[in-house]
């Protein structure tokens, strides 16, 4: 039988020595780490307190100076602090982050906590700007990292645009090599994940170049089939507050007084614009100091919470199912995609949309265009189309 | 308490005098005599685009007279500001330009001294070439630099590149809504920093304590939507300073310490971009295209459109470039390159001439010369104070220029899309 006791006794002696030695070391080390940790935590807390009106700036500056002297191993903790919607605090943290990173990378053998940084980078729940900062840092160490990660980021809240660009460029390379099918697959992939209008249109163009037609209007959720009526006369900029008959009730068979003995009637119109823009001057005629209305019905298979995004030149008011959901009195705006965003609920079945678009006085410079138009769409938070069907019959196009 | 020294908050002129006395007393040369006149803000030392320096360059090219060229990060249409041996610039980059830079270069060689990287809150649309998120020009007193970005963020940075305070105006008061980008540059008087925040949303003007970054006052400007102009100061005949804001259709003068309205004048176009200039006891405001240039006597109360407008001229009003007042002559260049020289006292036409090119940058002047720079980077040097158009030189830089130039240390500084160039040229 093996005398475990003896062995244990012998081993215990060594073990005890080791434990004592380690405790001595750790005793020296841990209080230091703990104090440093506390300093860093306190500095982070101070910076988190900065707020509107530059409050807390002086304390934040001192705290930032403290953080900036920390070691590179502090970077992951700073990144957690950087995961904040408070951009003022984020900028203080970033200054410290940049100084630590720059100092470490200037060393002959930089020691970044790479695994933790990369884990943070891959976490799509973290704030986009902090993840992008992390990517910029890691790229300085590993320039191939970005392209390795991009294919997995086609639905990423921060890197979607970069990823879509990447797959579209992959398609371009395939196309240059005359490999049409792989090029088409890349373009389709890019189109499917694109949310910003310029990328959507780029993908549509590229798909067209390989013989495939795609519909940007449906992809982005534009309503492009409308009943239109106008112009109702509204001197100067009185149109926004003036209420004309369509605001009381929409009667598509009604005739309205145009103010010059002529009659205004609803007219069915389908926009052919690639981004669903409705040009009222082309659709119902030129006007100034006037109001036009657009009416549409869309069919939703179920009740759904969506975003209504719209813009108009000059200004826009929107009613959904007879309830006003948006009204902004601003003149000379220009139609800018998604200028106004508001959450709305589409009910199951038909939904009625009424839009009022005002037209102000003409520009004093006769060369300046006097446009009168609007765009409206329903989408999710990423900008992808909400599922709905147009409830109006097809109309002749512009 | 203060993270910006009070001593830096005395009026610039007084500060300069005190500094001069102090430095001479300790046997050192004052900064201004070593480095020449500073160009500390949008449109230079008196906010009028005129340098008091002499012996300024007349001729240069991409190969001749170029002293140095510094590559800049990102892009920017803001002008460089110069204090002694420091040049401060802003820039922006990224897919939506939310990555912001404040950069300091050495004026003698263009070497980068430091750069501060920051995030902007809410980038807006902007012109493809003539504006971006770094269009407002910084302002400095040599110790601190104040920068405003089109993202709705304002920063105070010390001369060593340390952030002193910051405000996210876009978070506090709503994002700037602007399809051409915010362009209005900050102004300073005493211990206050003034920001004209006109945009398509809810416009306002702010007076911020330079020391702490806190608001001293905020005045909302309902109905003011189409202004890209920068604030200006004018003194009335008793020497009282007025804060002047040009905007869509109107000019407002406010009491600088309180923001209380003093007077207003109508008659600007519905979009206003140029910054007014002051001189000879008058304010010179203009907006175009085809709008009126006006000379206004300050010191009124209420609507003074009928009482204080000394003259109106419909000749050559620019849409983008701001004017220059050099002595008794008022120079305008419109976007199509028609230069108009008016008598500043009467508004009467002295001469008019068509230059070649499209003009975005505002002209600058000094040493009896007016420098008009076109979008393709050609600067036409015109002799000032003449009864007819006298062209001294045409100098091609070989790169586009949209940002307005700066003058300091007998040199000209121009920003191209990617670089800052320093021109010594030939006198």
Shape of chain A: globular
Tally of DSSP helical segments of chain B = 3
Biggest beta sheet attributes of chain B: 5 strands, mixed
Q: Look at the structure and give the mean pLDDT of chain B.
A: 91
Domain count of chain A:
3
Task: Work out the largest interface and the residue count of each chain.
Answer: A-B, 30 and 37 residues
Give the overall form of chain B. globular
Given as residue ranges, the uncertain stretches of chain B (5+ residues, pLDDT < 50) are 1-33
The strand count of chain A comes to 13
Oligomer: heterodimer
CATH-defined fold name of the largest domain in chain A: Jelly Rolls
Identify the CATH class of the domain at 46-77 and 321-427 in chain B. Mainly Beta
Total strand count of chain B, please?
Answer: 34
Task: Using the 3D structure, state the CATH architecture of the domain at 46-77 and 321-427 in chain B.
Answer: Beta Barrel
Structural class of chain A: alpha+beta
Radius of gyration of chain A: 31 Å
Helical content of chain A, roughly? Answer: 40-55%
Mean of all residue-level pLDDT scores of chain A: 89
State the end-to-end distance of chain B. Answer: 49 Å
The CATH architecture term of the largest domain in chain A is Sandwich
Description:
The complex is a heterodimer of chains A (398) and B (427). Chain A is built from 13 helices and 13 strands. With 398 residues, chain A is an alpha+beta fold. Chain A has three domains: 140 residues, no CATH class; 55 residues; 171 residues, Jelly Rolls, CATH 2.60.120. In chain A, strands 1, 4, 6, 8, 9, 11 and 13 form a seven-stranded antiparallel beta sheet that branches. In chain A, strand 2 and strand 3 form a beta hairpin. The N terminus of chain A is likely disordered. In chain B, strands 1-28-29-30-31 form a five-stranded mixed beta sheet, with no helix packed on it. In chain B, strands 15-16-17-18-22 form a five-stranded mixed beta sheet, with no helix packed on it. In chain B, strands 2-34-33-32 form a four-stranded antiparallel beta sheet, with no helix packed on it. Chain B has a domain of 139 residues: Beta Barrel (Lipocalin). Chain B contains three helices and 34 strands. The N terminus of chain B is likely disordered. In chain B, strand 33 and strand 34 form a beta hairpin. Classes of the chains: A alpha+beta (398), B mainly beta (427).
């Amino acid at each position: 039988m093996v005398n475990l006791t003896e062995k244990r006794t012998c081993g215990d002696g060594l073990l005890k020595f080791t434990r004592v030695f380690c405790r001595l070391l750790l005793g020296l080390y841990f209080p230091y780490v703990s104090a440093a940790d506390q300093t860093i935590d306190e500095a982070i807390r101070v910076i988190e307190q900065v707020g509107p009106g530059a409050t807390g700036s002086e304390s934040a500056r001192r705290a930032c100076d403290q953080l900036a002297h920390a070691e590179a191993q502090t970077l992951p903790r700073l990144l957690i602090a950087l995961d904040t919607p408070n951009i003022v605090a984020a900028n203080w943290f970033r200054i410290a982050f940049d100084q630590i990173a720059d100092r470490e990378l200037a060393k002959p053998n930089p020691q970044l906590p790479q695994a933790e940084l990369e884990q943070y980078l891959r976490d799509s729940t973290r704030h986009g700007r902090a993840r992008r900062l992390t990517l910029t840092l890691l790229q300085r160490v590993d320039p191939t990292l970005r392209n390795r990660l991009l294919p997995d980021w086609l639905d990423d809240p921060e890197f979607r645009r970069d990823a879509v660009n990447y797959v579209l460029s992959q398609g371009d390379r395939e196309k240059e090599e005359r490999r049409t099918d792989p090029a088409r697959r890349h373009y389709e992939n890019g189109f499917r994940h694109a949310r910003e209008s310029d990328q959507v249109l780029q993908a549509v163009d590229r798909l067209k170049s390989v013989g495939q037609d795609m519909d940007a209007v449906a992809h982005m959720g534009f309503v492009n089939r409308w009943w239109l009526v106008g112009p109702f006369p509204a001197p100067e900029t009185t149109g926004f507050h003036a209420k004309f008959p369509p605001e009381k009730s929409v009667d598509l068979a009604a005739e309205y007084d145009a103010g010059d003995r002529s009659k205004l009637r609803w007219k069915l119109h389908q926009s052919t614009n690639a981004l669903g823009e409705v040009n009222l001057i082309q659709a119902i005629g030129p006007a100034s100091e006037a109001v036009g209305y657009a009416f549409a019905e869309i069919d939703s298979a179920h009740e759904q919470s969506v975003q209504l995004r719209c813009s108009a030149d000059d200004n826009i008011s929107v009613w959904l199912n007879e309830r006003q959901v948006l009204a902004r009195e601003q003149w000379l705006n220009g139609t800018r995609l998604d200028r106004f965003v508001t959450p709305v609920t589409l009910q199951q079945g038909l939904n009625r949309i009424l839009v009022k678009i005002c037209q102000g006085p003409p520009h004093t410079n006769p060369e300046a265009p006097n446009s009168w138009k609007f765009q409206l769409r329903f989408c999710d938070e990423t900008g992808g189309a909400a599922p709905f069907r147009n409830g109006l019959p097809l109309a002749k196009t512009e | 308490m203060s993270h910006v020294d009070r001593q830096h908050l005395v009026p610039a002129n007084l500060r300069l005098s005190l500094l001069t006395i102090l430095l001479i007393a300790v046997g050192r040369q004052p900064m201004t005599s070593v480095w020449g006149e500073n160009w500390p803000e949008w449109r230079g030392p008196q906010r009028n685009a005129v340098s008091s320096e002499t012996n300024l360059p007349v001729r240069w090219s991409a190969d001749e007279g170029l002293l140095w060229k510094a590559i800049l990060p990102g892009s920017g249409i803001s002008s460089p500001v110069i204090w002694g041996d420091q040049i401060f610039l802003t820039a922006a980059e990224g897919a939506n330009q939310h990555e912001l830079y404040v950069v300091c270069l050495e004026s003698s060689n263009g070497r980068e001294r430091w750069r501060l990287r920051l995030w902007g809150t809410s980038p807006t649309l902007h012109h493809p070439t003539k504006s971006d998120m770094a269009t407002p020009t910084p302002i400095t007193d040599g110790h601190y630099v104040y920068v405003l970005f089109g993202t709705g963020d304002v920063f105070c940075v010390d001369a060593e590149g340390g952030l002193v305070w910051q405000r996210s105006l876009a978070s506090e008061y709503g994002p700037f809504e602007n399809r051409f980008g915010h362009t209005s540059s900050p102004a300073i008087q005493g211990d206050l920093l003034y920001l004209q925040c006109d945009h398509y949303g809810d416009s306002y003007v702010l007076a911020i304590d330079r020391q702490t970054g806190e608001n001293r006052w905020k005045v909302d400007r309902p109905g003011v939507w189409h202004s890209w102009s920068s604030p200006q100061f004018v003194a009335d005949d008793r020497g009282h300073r007025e804060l002047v804001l040009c905007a869509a259709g109107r000019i407002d003068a406010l009491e600088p310490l309180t923001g209380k309205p003093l007077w207003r004048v109508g008659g600007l176009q519905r979009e206003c971009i140029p910054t007014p200039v002051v001189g000879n006891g008058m304010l010179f405001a203009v907006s175009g295209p085809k709008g009126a240039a006006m000379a206004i006597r300050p010191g009124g109360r209420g609507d003074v459109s009928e009482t204080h407008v000394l003259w109106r001229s419909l000749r050559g009003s620019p849409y983008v470039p701001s004017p220059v007042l050099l002595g008794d002559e008022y120079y305008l260049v419109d976007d199509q390159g028609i230069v108009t020289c008016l008598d500043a006292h009467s508004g009467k036409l002295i001469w008019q001439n068509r230059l070649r090119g499209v003009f975005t940058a505002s002209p600058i002047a000094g040493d009896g010369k007016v420098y008009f720079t076109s979008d393709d980077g050609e600067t036409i040097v015109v002799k000032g104070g003449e009864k007819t158009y006298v062209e001294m030189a045409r100098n091609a830089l070989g790169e586009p220029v949209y940002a307005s130039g700066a003058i300091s240390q007998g040199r000209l500084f121009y920003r191209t899309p990617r670089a800052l160039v320093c021109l010594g040229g030939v006198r």
